[in-house]
């Protein structure tokens, strides 16, 4: 399968997908993209705007995972208005959901946090995430991840992600990574009738 992993970060969602597929990852932050490449040397890594890349290349893939930036939707950011100036919610999240629902012929998932407002398009809750897909995600319980300023190695260990890299905002980068077990669960749900492809 040809897989597109958008807003790839350090690849938490992708960690347990294996090496059987051709994966293209798109990440705008060059330093984070290099960490991803170290973790997944066989993946093709594009340093660029995932929103634009999706529009230009969606027809080239069988499965698309998109994790648009979540801060503008976050309940934690909204609750903590003393430290955080109000901002408009980033609507690229909903643009991508509508786009994929109507134009993409393969399997897709768009992942984000559970927002501080009623979602404009209903999604499937799993852990602290909300998912929009064209397949059914089976119910499964995952530990809710804390937003506390816990040390990076503790968070990384819980997610099974190495933290042996140097980067500014390391805790935030690791905390934003999707739990690999959750990433695998969603991936398997997309292809439950084709388990041999996994």
Give a description of the structure.
The protein has helices at 30-39, 50-57, 75-79, 92-103, 152-159, 170-176, 180-190; strands at 2-6, 22-27, 44-47, 63-66, 107-113, 124-126, 129-133. It has 198 residues and is α/β, with parallel strands linked by helices. It is built from seven helices and seven strands, in the order ββαβαβααβββααα. A seven-stranded mixed sheet has the order 3-2-1-4-5-7-6, with helices on both faces. It has one domain (2-146, 179-197): Vaccinia Virus protein VP39 (Rossmann fold, 3-Layer(aba) Sandwich), CATH 3.40.50. The model is unreliable at 147-151 (pLDDT under 50). The chain is globular, with a radius of gyration of 16 Å.
Largest β-sheet summary: 7 strands, mixed
Which structural class should the secondary elements be placed in?
Answer: alpha/beta
Could you give the distance between the termini? Answer: 9 Å
Major beta sheet, strand line-up: 3-2-1-4-5-7-6
The CATH homologous superfamily is called: Vaccinia Virus protein VP39
CATH topology: Rossmann fold
- Uncertain parts: 147-151
Give the overall pLDDT as a whole number.
Answer: 87
């Amino acid at each position: 399968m040809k897989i597109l992993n958008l807003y790839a970060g350090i690849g938490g969602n992708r960690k347990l997908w294996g090496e059987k597929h051709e994966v293209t990852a798109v990440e705008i932050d060059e330093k984070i993209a290099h960490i991803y490449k170290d973790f997944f040397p066989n993946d093709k890594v594009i340093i660029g705007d995932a929103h634009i890349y999706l529009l230009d290349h969606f027809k080239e893939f069988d499965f698309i995972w998109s994790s648009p930036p979540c801060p503008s939707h976050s309940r934690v950011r909204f609750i903590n208005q003393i430290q955080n100036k109000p901002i408009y919610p980033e609507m690229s999240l909903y643009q991508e959901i509508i786009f994929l629902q109507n134009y993409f012929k393969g399997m897709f998932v768009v992942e984000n946090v559970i927002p501080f407002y009623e979602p404009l398009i209903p999604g499937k809750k799993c852990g602290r995430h909300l998912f929009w897909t064209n397949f059914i995600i089976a119910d499964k319980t995952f530990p809710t991840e804390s937003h506390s300023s816990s040390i990076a190695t503790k968070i990384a260990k819980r997610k099974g992600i190495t933290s042996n890299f140097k980067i500014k905002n390391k805790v935030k980068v690791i905390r934003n990574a999707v739990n690999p077990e959750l990433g695998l669960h969603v991936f398997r749900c997309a292809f439950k009738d084709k388990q041999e492809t996994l």
